[in-house]
Amino acid sequence: MIATARIHQPAKPSLSSLMASYGEIYRQLGILLDLDALEADTWVSERQGHPPVYCLVLERHRYTTLLRLTHLFAGEHEKALNPDAHVRIYHDAHVGEVTHCCHDALPRKWNNSERCTDQPFYDRLQQNYWFDQWLEHLLAVGHSWQTFVPCED
Length: 153
Known about the structure:
Elements lengths: L14 H18 L9 E4 L7 E8 L3 E11 L4 E12 L4 E8 L16 H22 L7 E3 L3
Antiparallel strand pairs: 1-2, 1-6, 2-3, 3-4, 4-5
Helix pairs in contact: 1-2
């Protein structure tokens, strides 16, 4: 099992806690994916007993990469992407930022007594916190840059 540095949901959200989550996301993505070798458009990692993880390279530039990480669930009549996260990686700064995230279980509010006055900030913090937890789960079940292979679909 791969050890990860656990980022706990902060009692009082702050810019420093958001930046810490960006750094942790980059670190975990570096274990999950070979960030320097993502040349194919779509990658997939399959582990027995777990849904496959898809990584789509949406944009690749010298200093940034935009990825989409998701599980694809094929139902009887439709396919569902859940969760569905877009992550911008800043290679020179060694940070990864969730720019879009949809998940059935993603909470809408913080579990604290303070009212959120800057909702976009708190939404961003919550998305990045949740994504960090999902990455930790993916690593724990054995997904890594060694299990991702180019996908034809």
